[in-house]
Amino acid sequence: MADQEALTGTSRVKRGMADMLKGGVIMDVVNAEQAKIAEDAGAVAVMALERVPADIRAQGGVARMSDPDMIDEIISAVSVPVMAKARIGHFAEAQILQSLGVDYIDESEVLTPADYSNHIDKQLFTVPFVCGATNLGEALRRLTEGAAMIRSKGEAGTGDVSNAVTHMRRILGDIARLTAMSPDELYVAAKELQASYDLVAEVARTGKLPVVLFTAGGIATPADAAMMMQLGADGVFVGSGIFKSGDPVRRAQAIVQATLHFDNPDVVAKVSRGLGEAMVGINVADIPVAHRLEDRGW
Amino acid sequence: MTASPLIGVLALQGDVTEHELALQAVGARTARVRAAADLSGIAGLVIPGGESTTMSNLAIRMELFEPLRAASLAGMPMYGSCAGMIMLADQVTDARPDQQTIGGLDVIVRRNAFGRQVDSFEIDLDIPTLGESPFRAVFIRAPLVESTGPGVEVLATLQRGTAAGTIVAVRQGVRLATSFHPELTGDTRIHDLFVQIVRRHT
Description:
The structure holds two protein chains of two kinds. In chain A, about 40% of the residues lie in helices and about 10% in strands. Chain A is of the alpha/beta class. Chain A has an eight-stranded parallel β-sheet with strand order 8-7-6-5-4-3-2-9. Chain A is globular and about 55 Å long. The radius of gyration of chain B is 15 Å and the shape is globular. Chain B has helices spanning about 15-25, 50-60, 65-75, 85-90, 190-200; strands at about 5-10, 30-35, 45, 80, 90-95, 105-110, 120-125, 135-140, 145-150, 155, 165-170, 175-180. Chain B has one domain: Rossmann fold, CATH 3.40.50.880. Chain B is α/β, with parallel strands linked by helices. In chain B, the strands form three sheets. Chain B has a seven-stranded mixed β-sheet. A three-stranded mixed β-sheet of chain B has the order 5-6-9. In chain B, strand 11 and strand 12 (about 175-180) form a beta hairpin. The chains are: A alpha/beta, B alpha/beta. At the A-B interface, strand 1, helix 1 and helix 12 of A face helix 1, helix 2, strand 7 and strand 8 of B. Strand 1 (about 5-10) of chain A pairs antiparallel with strand 7 (about 120-125) of chain B.
């Protein structure tokens, strides 16, 4: 007779949920109508938030978790999973999101941090979390806290893909370097990465993160998505890039197709035609350091 | 039958790699299926876990349903886990009205039947056809089988709790489906059963 005790919120159940999203595009949406457009275009999940990053950047002020009514509307509008953002360290926002029944929480640097020292203790939750990272050490610290999925941070709300590239290359480069080390070097590597030795040793042995790694922050075109997938992303988050563009419906479909056919330039070329204006965008280099989101989270 | 069968994995989205590794672990070769042309030369097809809404959407857009149904009608063995079970079911409830399936498995499947992600769970299952030791089964926003037609063999049900009696694994001839994800646990007995079905069929 099998042991029939059902366990929820296990690491396998949380990480496995992210495995089901692989090869897909997760789109930022601010209302039910956008959520439907995203689902119709083939999004694998939607991210509910009050303002897309480009508007948060333009309007300023404190950016917080979305209104529960808005999240409920989005949950009722679509059949794909719904994610929502909580401020870094704001465990009460995360408790609310879990209570609302969101499928994944993004503890996100796009919102104004609530705690400049500590992240949320994600081990305490049944709902899984995704967190941003700019390098391997940051990714592994998030995993120790209980994150079940990682996204490279990039620089949200810019339409400038350069930081997404930098962060993805850095995370994968850090992993490649670990695999080349002899076992006695891994202790110091863990110290330098400021990460748990056990996780560092696991990554050195397997040559990959133990969770799914998506890309985020500045993806605005099908070509951006195809490049990030070729660099090694398991999937793509698109924030402002879709609903700040001239033709969100076509662009959303095109980015989904480019993510699926990332290694087929003929398809990516075809879907890149006739999309209208891309989001205007800001060069990351023109953003004052104090306004850059990549440095939020530690 | 010593040759290693070539088994396709539908690669529109989802945990394709995990299925490939499980199939390779039990001696099969694998190929990714993304277009109708990829169906030629494979002896069986696995439809992975993922989001069934998205998978259906992409298959419609890429005009893949007709060739997939033709392959199924021609008798190609198919195995689906979770979203893959939905793709094989003749009928689906609680789905978008425009969701399509390949069909071929005479069951009614309820999409996302256990609740939201916080209700996802893992549990030990008795699956008598796989032997005595329990099967660790991971259910993620999982579907369940509401009813089965004649000729559908029930391989496993949940045994306790509010969902006791729920059908979570079925077989109909060369078609196999599970609500759960054997590809996530390292237990390859389901994949081994499917490869045996493929070997016997070819």
